[in-house]
Design goal:
With 338 residues, this protein is α/β, with parallel strands linked by helices. The chain folds into 2 domains: 27-123 and 247-301, D-Maltodextrin-Binding Protein, domain 2; 126-244 and 305-336, D-Maltodextrin-Binding Protein, domain 2, CATH 3.40.190. The protein is 49% helix and 16% strand. The chain has helices at 2-22, 43-61, 74-82, 95-103, 116-119, 160-175, 180-192, 201-209, 221-231, 254-260, 263-272, 276-284, 292-297, 310-314, 317-325, 330-336, and strands at residues 32-39, 65-72, 89-91, 122-124, 126-131, 151-152, 216-220, 235-238, 242-244, 246-248, 250-252, 288-289, 306-308. The longest helix is centred in the first third of the chain and has 21 residues, at 2-22. The protein starts with a helix and ends with a helix. This is Sulfate ABC transporter substrate-binding protein. Residues 1-29 form the signal peptide. It is found in: Periplasm. Belongs to the prokaryotic sulfate-binding protein family.
Length: 338
Amino acid sequence: MHTKNNAHVRRGILALALSALALPFSASAAEVELLNVSYDVARELYKEINPAFIAEYKKTTGEDVSIKQSHGGSSKQARSVADGLEASVVTMNQANDIDMLADRGLVAKDWAKKFPNNAAPYYSTMVFLVRKGNPKGIKNWDDLAKPGVKVVIPNPKTAGNGRYTYLAAWGSVIKKGGTEAQARDLVTRIFKNVPILDAGGRAATTTFTQRQIGDALVTFENEVQMVRSEFGDNFELVYPAMSILAESPVAVVDKVVDRRGVRKQATAYLNFLYSEQGQTIGAKHYLRPRSQTVYKKFEKNYKPIALFSVDEVFGGWKAAQKKHFDDGGEFDKIYQTK
């Protein structure tokens, strides 16, 4: 009888073990972890966004979530995701990088319609950081092309802000009624003045501020403001007469979130960027928020500037990429002649 009872218990334990093995993986069985693959100069932003979202999500759902970050040049980061980096979400600085992931089937084709404002919760523009007193008198795009001026710009092949800088300079000529040949000439002369092409925006900032290379750094308005708040009076901010609309688009990486069972959390994370709290954190980091209420609170941080879009001047990111940044495109021709 004793042996029979033991056999019965063993069968019961075996059945429980087999039923546990048969249970489908559930993200809620353990703390959910998201990976946000982002661009170079968004580090400080997400250091503040992440704990705020984690606390809010816990408060509203009772669930724990953790978030890991990966940062680098925007295009380089997108290629890492395409090559297998397990991003739950991507938060980039140009639509082109997310389009590439959509073409690979990792992100929805209509990703830009999944969240408000073309799935870009914040925007910025390209401005100049110059040394105190602006000794080279740099005020506009053509001043960057003058002989004897050294300009620090990250590589447009790997960094979104390098790409935006190139397009802003080119577009500034077109918007004033100039020709494509005149635009090419200006951009060629600017890049002849670039002493080093760093891979990402943060590396370019380090080159200018800490390695003391260059007379001007061209980068996002929010990056320039952060440098000024950190280094005080060593630098001055210069707004050109016009510049480019630099949106910061976001997307859920469908293949990863569905495989890991974290779509709900990933979507909530990106929606948080549009909340009043998320918009306020973005504004504190000098990004221009979409919320008009939040924008008005931080209005003193944003100088009015005429902005043109990539769509307006270049026919969209895909056309701009093909013409200017693909291998053998305009940028390669320009830089090879340096």
